[in-house]
Amino acid sequence: MRVVSGIQPTGSLHLGNYLGAIRNWVRMQDSLEEGSQCLFFLADLHAISMPHVPAELRAGTLEMTAALVACGIDPDRSILFNQAQVPAHAELQWLLNGTARMGWLNRMTQFKDKSGKNREGASVALFTYPVLQAADVLLYQASHVPVGEDQKQHLELARDVAQKFNNDFCTEDAPVFTLPDPIIPPEAARIMSLRDGSSKMSKSDPSDMARINLADDADLVAKKVKKAKTDPEPLPSEAKGLEGRPEALNLVSIYAALSDCSVESVLAQYGGQGFGAFKPALAELMVESLRPVTTRFNELMEDREALDAILARGAAHAREIARPTLNAAYEALGLVRG
Ligand code: TYM
Predict the structure, then answer these.
(1) Interface pTM (ipTM) of the complex?
(2) Which residues of this UniProt protein bind L-tryptophan (predicted)?
(3) Would residue 100 count as lying in a domain?
């Protein structure tokens, strides 16, 4: 089993990232069997697909490294690195550009969402973004990719690219790529914005009130939860009573995910009560759950050299693992390299 996943080092780590992906990374790392491996990386090459400030990307890369370690990613057990230190990601992307089809990329919802009305002005990198993401996982023969629901389409594309490449350029008994399986947590697949239950919690939301950042202090968390959008009805006592109430569903789902129980059991406890009672309980649960992470994050940020060293060591290891697959891809395509 090889587990591979990534996160963009832009903006701060928020509750959606944590519950949708990072908590699963840590669980998979902690339950790994002998001979299996986890690779987690900062998708800094993906981050340049949108307008960005170089100094912020540089600072954000170290900050996200600290955040991941604070959440429980152990650089002695998992390979933690940033794409920019492993050129094989960009190389394999180019090789896969020959296999990925324009029609496949045209169907990607992320490109439509992020380019908005200004499609002509979007970067080429934003369009080919999913091919780099395919390279990220195929390079390491990933079998499992823990992600939130929003990355499912990209993972399907990675499987299509792998399958077509294997069909077009390999014999049946010697495929170059493994088809990766996405691992999506059922209870926290899609954490929504606190201001709008129909859009996902996101680093790029202009309103900081829409998300809980892992670095927010207790007062700010309480304020954000208090101001979170809701409806005037009390909580129902069964899950089907949350239909058509996206904000209420989101808050109950967050509570369920943080306390590791089902939506039903949260409703068994809070059904019939109004948000005036539920919100303070939710805020307290968030603060208690995030406190150890925030404390550790602040400690780690004191020693930037140690964070650099973690990435350099992880990248050296990743380069080694990547080499045979990259060589096999060049070879399969008939590219002469001396
Ligand atoms: P990114 O940086 O947007 O998010 C990192 C991870 O957090 C999950 N996530 C969420 N889960 C639930 N609810 C939310 N509101 C929420 N917001 C974010 C994402 O699904 C993701 O798992 N393209 C990727 C990074 C990437 C990658 C990869 C991931 C690059 N290469 C290869 C997996 C494999 C991204 O931008 O994630």
Answers:
(1) 0.99
(2) 136
(3) yes
- Ligand 1 geometric centre to CA of 23 (Å): 12
Candidates 3, 4, 7, 82: which one to mutate for ligand 1, based on the most atoms within 8 Å of Cβ? 7
Q: Please tell me the total number of residues recorded for the chain in this structure.
A: 338
Would the annotation count 8 as a binding residue?
yes
Q: Which two tokens stand for residue 261?
A: 């129980």
Q: Which residues contact 326 (CB under 8 A, 6 or more apart)?
A: 88, 91, 92, 139
Domain residue limits at 254: 208-299
Q: With respect to residue 189, please indicate whether it lies within any of the assigned structural domains.
A: no
Tell me the whole-structure pTM to 2 decimals.
0.95
CATH for 26: 3.40.50.620
Note the pLDDT tens digit of each residue in 130-183: 999 999 999 999 999 999 999 999 999 999 999 999 999 999 999 999 999 999
